[in-house]
Amino acid sequence: MDGLEADGRLRLPPNVTTLMAEDLRAGLVLAADHESAILINASETVNIGQAALQLLIAARQEADRLNIPFEIENAQAPLIARLDALGLADILGLTGKGETMQ
């Protein structure tokens, strides 16, 4: 995992594998503590594994529970399409962000 950016956003790598789940969990905790929001930069992410998806869903639910912002930013069309096919785009707040998909 690349970790937190200077502005508190968690940057996801191109491929988020199950082996990265523990690092992702730690990064999500740190992101939640920074500015009371969970902001995730997925600009380079093309593939994300099941364990990472479960963590992102849990982080979304926790953000909702705490009433703090949760956003996956800069997600590219292939990632959005994959999450939409899995029925997870809406849960993760990515519905409507893939208008440029072909």
The overall number of domains is: 1
Average predicted local confidence, pLDDT: 85
Would you identify the regions where 5 or more consecutive residues have pLDDT less than 50? none
Spatial order of the strands forming the largest sheet = 1-2-4-6
Number of strands: 6
Helix tally equals 3
Look at the structure and name the CATH superfamily. Answer: STAS domain
What is the CA-atom radius of gyration, in angstroms? 12 Å
In which range does the helix fraction lie? 25-40%
User: What's the helix-strand series?
Assistant: EEEHEEHEH
What is the CATH third-level topology name? Transcription Regulator spoIIAA
* Broad structural category: alpha/beta
Describe the protein in words.
The mean pLDDT is 85. The N and C termini lie far apart (29 Å). This protein has a single domain (3-85), classed as Transcription Regulator spoIIAA (2-Layer Sandwich). The protein is globular and about 30 Å long. With 102 residues, the chain is α/β, with parallel strands linked by helices. The protein has 3 helices and 6 strands. The strands form 2 sheets. Strands 1-2-4-6 form a 4-stranded mixed beta sheet. A two-stranded parallel ribbon has the order 3-5. A hairpin with a 5-residue loop joins strand 1 (3-4) and strand 2 (10-11). It holds the Pfam family STAS.
